[in-house]
Amino acid sequence: MAKNPEEKRQPWMKFYPADWQADEGLGQCSLTARGLWIELIAIMHKSDTFGHLLIAGKAPTDAQIAIQVKSDAKTVKKCLEELEKWRVFNRTESGIIYSRRMLADAEKARIDKQNGKGGGNPKLIGKTAKWVNPQDKPEDIAADNGADKAQKPEARSQRLEVVVVAAPGTGGEGGASPPIMPCRNDPPHKWIALAGKAEIDKHGVQRPVCGDHYLDLAADAVCEAAKIRQESWRGDWRPLIAWLQEGMSVEKHIVPAIRRVASRPGYQPPGSLKYFDNPVREAFAETAA
Length: 289
Description:
By secondary structure, the chain is an alpha+beta fold. The protein folds into 3 domains: 17-98, Arc Repressor Mutant, subunit A, CATH 1.10.10; 99-152, no CATH class; 155-171 and 179-289, no CATH class. The protein contains 13 helices and 6 strands. The protein has helices at 17-22, 24-27, 31-45, 62-69, 73-85, 100-117, 122-125, 138-143, 188-195, 215-226, 238-245, 250-262, 277-288, and strands spanning 90-91, 97-98, 162-164, 197-200, 206-210, 213-214. The strands form 2 sheets. The protein has a 4-stranded antiparallel β-sheet. The chain has a two-stranded antiparallel ribbon with strand order 1-2. Helix 10 (215-226) packs parallel to helix 12 and helix 12 packs across helix 13.
């Protein structure tokens, strides 16, 4: 929990309204508890240890929090119990409250910054950044797609051949255009174009690869969990691609998180998988902790 002396704290932070509203635990809390949580997030943003609830470097009491948020200790205590019941936050071994999402976002930002020091995507700059999968052999890295990611896919050694293909909407001088999203009934080449990478499987069939998964099979599993009729659905698959590229597992993180959201009373399938982004990332952060 030591503070990074090189860290330059931004006076602002990213906030995704859809993620806030989609958080299943937070959605079970009262309006008062949710209001307290956003106040605590603001405190944790300027904390000496980012993402941890510290005031002047120390874990505050309910009364001290009440002073900061202009409330009373009794209300703060009740709201904290409510937030903790629905697992909105976690505690360290010493009892300090922290935000899983804030720590996950900070770690991603750290990795992106570190990758950026080497010029970004190693595949594009013609060299290998030593801090990206340093355990890889040079020949392993040459076979990879060179994407910036923090984890090495577990099943890469089982792959037979990887072919990098041009992603849609990335060529030409006119700038990127939004990719056309494939549905289940579309031919394989559309899924491959979206993934940007293909693999020849053991049956000699070219398959779209994203992270450590086949993108089309991952999409099938996500649609089943989200109760989406995929045959003709052309929603945005890019959140799924981002999850897979960041090392999240369909079986361990993505599908279980989506099923929990889809089990809520009154749930309706969304138009974008971004609706599930926060629950999926929280499930990933919990297993990575």
